[in-house]
Amino acid sequence: MSTEPSAAISMPPAVPAADPPWAPRPPFRVPTRPPAALTTHQDCAACADTRSWLLARDRAEATPGRATDATTFGLGWLFRHLRWGPNRWPFAWCDLPDATHVDCGVLACVAALVLAERGLRVERVQLVERAAAEETALWRARWRAARCSDDWLLTDHAVYHEVLLVAGEPGPVLFDPTELRQVGQGRDRPLWMRQWAL
Ligand SMILES: [Zn+2]
To answer: Which SS3 state, helix, strand or coil, does residue 129 take?
Structure first.
């Protein structure tokens, strides 16, 4: 995976890439790390098996309408196996079968693997999204109870999130594999985003 941000995103960014020095600073610390990456253990049969199983499972779900479904990309089956929630990092492919919960970084990695295997051009996108204080309080307690890092909760009102930019017809789709929907364009529009080439 590249560790450099790719060329400009084909949707208007929520915050211009090059703010003039007098521009107001966002009320959260902009993430500097690259998107989450699952570890592949060298010579680990379980890591290889997990990825083979995911790809085979996706092929088994193939339906005629899936290719044009730019809302879920036919990835609903993932949620019969993976539930959103806290997981510890680093996280390897062979950790997936036993994981009780996985976060948006794991879901983005898994969805990117599957969609790329279908021949779709996929890029990773990091977002900062708005959240309600009640939500962030709930999530913070949940992540802490699981002894997982809650550094994705940037403030009481802003959270780090990982999604995908999927090339499609008629245009690229900003797809959220955690919510299984397109990223909102209205009030739900992200506060910040950065795109990474795979
Ligand atoms: Zn492994």
So the answer is: strand
Q: Which segments within 118-179 are labelled E, that is strand?
A: 122-130, 158-166, 173-176
Cis-peptide into 12, omega within 30 deg = no
CA of 53 to the centre of ligand 1 (A): 14
CA-closest candidate to residue 178, choices 163, 192, 168 = 163
Q: What is the pTM of this model?
A: 0.86
Please check whether residue 106 is in contact with residue 124, taking contact to mean a CB–CB distance below 8 angstroms.
no
**Rounded-to-integer distance, Cα 134 and Cα 47, Å:** 37
Scanning the structure block, which residue is given the tokens 């709930």?
Answer: 138
Q: Quick: pLDDT tens for 85-108.
A: 999 999 999 999 999 999 999 999
Calculate how far, in angstroms, residue 79's C-alpha sits from the geometric centre of ligand 1. Answer: 22
Q: For 64, list phi and psi in degrees, rounded to 5.
A: -60, -35
